[in-house]
Design brief:
The complex is a heterodimer of chains A (608) and B (423). Helices cover 43% and strands 12% of the residues of chain A. Chain A starts with 12 loop residues before the first strand and ends in a 17-residue tail after the last helix. The mean pLDDT of chain A is 94. By secondary structure, chain B is α+β, with helices and mostly antiparallel strands. In chain B, strands 1, 8, 9, 10, 11, 12 and 13 form a seven-stranded antiparallel β-sheet that branches. In chain B, β8 and β9 form a beta hairpin. In chain B, α1 packs across α6 and α5 packs across α6. The two termini of chain B are 48 Å apart. Chain B: It catalyses: oxaloacetate + acetyl-CoA + ADP + phosphate = citrate + ATP + CoA.
């Protein structure tokens, strides 16, 4: 490699602060150029480690991810370029850390807004240690057919259009990153393309200057001419003027300094770039263009004439026989990313998941089409949220209030119930909240907690088939099934469950029809005649009233009601409610710092 | 990094506060700020020295040569100061070709003095240059040969040795004091991310350094580090730069977003308007209209970049279109929606906001006989350009669209030809 050449076809970089797109674009460029190794050796992402999957052509590769710059440099000693995508707040510190690594030779800083003082520290350190800083506030740079920094040169189409997959003869340097891409295209139109292009960034003090790069290009034999796009503000162009005057540059330089419009503004103006500020006469575009021309650069009369000036200079070199014809080749096709192809309408892909209850893609998440802010502003309750997310519709207030009552009534039933007991034992074993909760929930099933579901199922079946309470109860008995929702450990016919009474009163007052509940009461009347403890319990009351809610609200079709019962909505209600209690028990045990639970020997019957 | 001038009042406030913190030097200076909302009675309560001292008053508007322009009131009492301010507040003055009203004054104790020193610190690429002269004041330029300068590389600190050449010719009895002062000021300069600082002059009062006139510039990109140190700092616009309501709207939009949105009206009656993506390209479009000889028709400078959100682009484009279509005069106008070949900005996405604004302003565009020229490349440009073309057909406004195959500034010539053609 010639002195001053920064990159080659084997150059590898470390990429700081992982961004998927720029890295993938670098790898796509590599593939297009026919590089054998990917140009990104490793990624540094503070706080994460492992691998990042990316494409190298058709193939998927895993690029190592490191937590620290030091670790990455140690793991990839041949990677000598550091591409820094850190924010403006942290770019300076990470860049300095990278500069201090002996393996790093070149760093590119993308962030815009790095404080001047910090940039100056980097400049001083790089100068003292013979390293190169590109940026800050830049897109980076590119050596055609060899190595590309981050997002430089944009899309694959553009890279092909501008023939950046193979080297040409022009060295290009500009301040503006956006304009560098435009100029690659311009240069490709009128020459054999660029050999290398660098955007130094729009800051007042860029890490490396226009003249730094022009002097470098002067040493690279494949570069036959240089194109420079400067900008008003600052005096950077004058170091190029000096270099030209002192005969340090032996190749033609075509240069243009933009910003001739600044004189149209009466007061001081800050243009888009931080460094582009109208200052004294010396810093004006006109003065710089004049100075460059006087020093021997080819300076067009306007930007419009820039391309022609480049063309003429190149053609003269061709006439002089100084340009070696470029070996053209057709770059391989880069497989298109699925997302891009779908976006452009070229392909379609089936989805793997379907969702109908909520959508988080818009301005704010929606539950069944209702934005969350509306839910809060309208004072919706948990019952309303359940009706949106479970039933995909807004149920009337009397229904959602009933749902809330059910949750309140089922939230807990003391520490001795199997679910709570399990949660307590798990909490005392020192497990986390979720473990405690699920160990409790896992006991819910045919014997514990399933009664609401079953009650609804059997009552509905019996009622819909027109069975009399006698036929129903005796039929169940014949099948050896206890009637769910009937029977209580303590409550008796003359000492009804208070909760059942509350629910029944609510149903009778608010529901348009309570036919299922009344049927359950008839069943209870019959079972009470058999034994005094066969009362309608809270499970039976909820189950039957829920049937009335579904049938009486007029908001569900018959098949919908069957499905709701079939797929276990009522069990869901119980699980949801009881989670409140299980979480309570877990916190209770943790708060009380209860030790590991051990069941006493005395309480176990040891037997053969 | 962007260098922003701050008011003399703030320069002195920061210097006083941090010179004490960083160098243990106590500056005996007092300053008060006066503008149209100042209540002199209240001000005197918080700054009692105002009523017990003879005073100096001068505009604090980021321009110099105030003494030479007769804008300084010397040796006054508070009533005279109030009268001085009253006579000049809101009055337009012309400074360096810019005309604008005076809105802010600084009031300080009047300090009779003989000696006037000059101190200037400028940050440059490889360090800082520190200049000092014992012949400061308004004659500084005539005495430029007496100014001594040291260039301090970034990696070095300002030691007594480094400082010595500046003060070598000072009398022994003040040399140490002034040397310490220069070192202290330099520490403040570095610690607070100043990029420029000048005292012309400072003097000695009872043997202690005392800045009389001061200018400062801060690096506003360092704001995140200096939030507390700077306190409630104000970055006034350059003198003469008075924002119209539309410009201030965009300015406010720009401050709120991570993207960049710039808008300056050059000639409200201009017939060529621009809305260009990219800091580099936007300047070149304005250049090109000027280079082609039609600077007088250029309505504005406008730049958007850094991937603004669709909603931001919409708001931005609305304002540009309102200005571009204002006061139709029956003659043709042109709008350049330009840009280079983007590296990573999704062209279709940013165009969506512009398209929405164009659709909203259909009747205004027609009334002002607007011809629109679009040129852009970059990710997803095909979709963006196709949508633009479709919009032209939809709203029936003449609209030509070019991609990266065309030169970037070709549409400038077309726009000029269009507005200059008959009918």
């Amino acid at each position: 490699m010639a002195t001053g050449q920064l990159f080659s076809r084997t150059t590898q970089a470390l990429f700081y602060n992982y961004k998927q797109l720029p890295v993938q674009r670098m790898l796509d460029f590599d593939f297009l150029c026919g590089r054998e190794t990917p140009s990104v050796a490793g990624i540094i992402n503070p706080g994460s480690e492992g691998f990042q999957k990316l494409f190298f052509g058709q193939e998927e590769i895993a690029i190592p991810v490191h937590t620290t710059i030091e670790a990455a440099c140690a793991a990839h000693p041949t990677a000598d370029v550091f591409i820094n995508f850190a924010s403006f707040r942290s770019a300076a510190a990470s860049s300095m850390a990278a500069l201090k690594q002996p393996t790093i030779r070149v760093i590119a800083i993308i962030a815009e807004g790095v404080p001047e003082l910090d940039a100056k520290q980097l400049i001083a350190y790089a100068k003292a240690n013979n390293k190169v800083v590109i940026g800050p506030a830049t897109v980076g740079g590119i050596q055609a057919g060899a190595f590309k920094i981050g997002d430089t040169a944009g899309t694959i189409d553009n890279i092909i259009q501008c023939k950046l997959y193979r080297p040409g003869s022009v060295g290009f340097v500009s301040k503006s990153g956006g304009m560098s891409n435009e100029m690659y295209s311009s240069i490709a139109r009128v020459t054999d393309g660029i050999f290398e292009g660098i955007a130094i960034g729009g800051d007042v003090f860029p890490g490396s200057t226009l003249s730094d790069h022009v002097l470098r290009f002067n040493n690279i034999p494949q570069i036959k001419m240089m194109v420079v796009l400067g900008e008003l503000g600052g005096r950077d162009e004058y170091s190029l003027v000096e270099a030209l005057k002192h005969g340090k540059i032996h190749k033609p330089v075509v240069a243009w300094v933009s910003g001739t419009c600044a004189r149209l503004f009466k007061s001081e103006v800050q243009f888009g770039h931080a460094g582009a500020k109208s200052g004294g006469e010396m810093e004006s575009a006109q003065a710089k263009n004049q100075a460059l021309q006087d020093a021997g650069a080819v300076v067009p009369t306007s930007y419009e004439a820039f391309e022609d000036a480049i063309k003429e200079t190149f053609e003269k070199l061709v006439e002089e026989g100084k340009i070696t014809p470029v070996k053209e080749f057709t770059p391989p096709q880069i497989p298109e990313d699925l997302a891009t192809a779908i976006k452009s309408g070229k392909v379609r892909a089936p989805t793997h998941i379907v969702s109908t209850i909520s959508d988080d893609r818009g301005e704010e998440p929606c539950y069944a089409g209702i934005p969350m802010s509306t839910i809060v502003e309208q004072g919706y309750g948990i019952g309303d949220v359940i009706s949106l997310l479970w039933f995909k519709r807004s149920l009337p207030r009397y229904c959602t209030q009933f749902i809330e009552m059910c949750i309140i009534l089922c939230a807990d039933h003391g520490p001795c119930i199997s679910g709570a007991h399990n949660a307590i034992v798990t909490a005392r074993a020192g497990k986390d909240l979720v473990s405690c909760l699920v160990s409790g929930l896992l006991t819910i099933g045919p014997r514990f907690g399933g009664a609401i579901d079953d009650a609804a199922k059997y009552f509905k079946d019996a009622y819909d088939r027109g069975l009399s309470p006698y036929e129903f109860v005796e039929g169940m008995k014949r099948k050896g099934i206890r009637v769910p929702g009937i029977g209580h450990r303590i409550k008796r016919g003359d000492n009804r469950d208070k909760r059942v009474e509350v629910l029944q009163n609510y149903g009778r007052t608010h529901f348009p029809s309570v036919k299922y509940m009344e049927y359950a009461v008839q069943v209870e009347t019959y079972t009470l005649s058999k034994a005094n403890n066969l009362v309608l319990n809270v499970d039976g009351a909820i189950g039957s009233l829920f049937l009335d809610l579904l049938a009486g609200s007029g908001m569900f079709t018959k098949p919908e009601i069957d499905e709701i019962i079939q797929i276990g909505y009522l069990n869901g209600l119980f699980v949801l409610a009881r989670s409140i209690g299980l979480i309570g028990h877990t916190f209770d045990q943790k708060r009380l710092k209860q030790p590991l639970y051990r069941h006493p020997w005395e309480d176990v019957l040891y037997t053969k | 990094m962007a260098r922003k001038k701050i008011r003399e009042y703030d320069s002195k406030r920061l210097l006083k506060e941090h010179l004490k913190r960083l160098a243990g030097i106590n500056l005996e200076i007092c300053s008060a700020q006066v503008n149209e909302s100042t209540d002199f009675a209240e001000l005197t309560n918080s700054e009692p020295w105002l009523s017990s001292t003879r005073l100096v008053v001068k505009p604090d508007m980021l321009f110099g040569k105030r003494g030479k322009s007769g804008l300084v009131g010397l040796n006054m009492d508070l009533a005279q100061v109030a009268q001085f301010v009253k006579e000049r507040l809101g009055v337009e003055v012309e400074m360096g070709g810019c005309k604008a009203p005076i809105t802010t004054f600084i009031v300080e104790p009047f300090v009779p003095h003989d000696q006037e020193y000059y101190l200037n610190i400028v940050s440059d690429r490889l360090g800082c240059s520190i200049s000092f002269s014992e012949c400061g004041g308004i004659e500084i330029e005539e005495n430029w040969d007496k100014v001594k300068t040291v260039s301090l590389p970034t990696e070095k600190t300002l030691t007594s040795e480094a400082c010595a050449p500046l003060i070598a010719t000072l009398p022994l009895e003040v040399r140490g004091k002034i040397g310490d002062f220069i070192k202290g000021v330099f520490t403040v300069f570095q610690d607070l991310d100043f990029t420029f600082l000048e005292m012309n002059p400072f003097t000695l009062v009872n043997g202690e350094p005392y800045p009389l006139d001061m200018r400062g510039e801060l690096d506003d990109t360092a704001a995140f580090k200096n939030f507390e140190k700077w306190g409630g700092i104000e970055f006034p616009l350059p003198f003469g730069r008075v924002l119209s309501s539309t410009e201030s709207f965009i300015h406010a939009l720009d401050e709120k977003t991570s993207a960049s949105l710039k808008f300056t009206v050059l000639n409200p009656k201009g017939r060529i308007w621009t809305m260009v993506a990219g800091g580099g390209a936007s300047v070149i479009y304005a250049d090109t209209v000027g280079d082609l000889g039609y600077a007088s028709e250029l309505g504005n400078y406008a730049e958007y970049s850094g991937a603004p959100k669709e909603e931001e682009v919409l708001q931005y484009a609305r304002v540009v279109l309102d200005c571009a279509t204002a006061d139709p005069d029956g003659r043709k106008r042109a709008l350049l929606i330009g840009g280079g070949i983007a590296n990573f900005t999704d062209v279709a996405a940013t165009f969506n906001g512009i398209i929405r604004a164009l659709r909203e302003k259909e009747s205004k565009l027609k009334a002002s006989r607007m011809h629109i020229y679009v040129r852009r490349g970059g990710p997803n440009y095909q979709t963006g350009l196709a949508r633009m073309r479709a919009l032209g057909d939809e709203i029936g406004v003449p609209l030509e669209v070019y991609g990266p195959e065309a030169t970037m500034t070709g549409i400038c010539k077309q726009a000029i030809d269009c507005i200059m053609s008959a009918a």
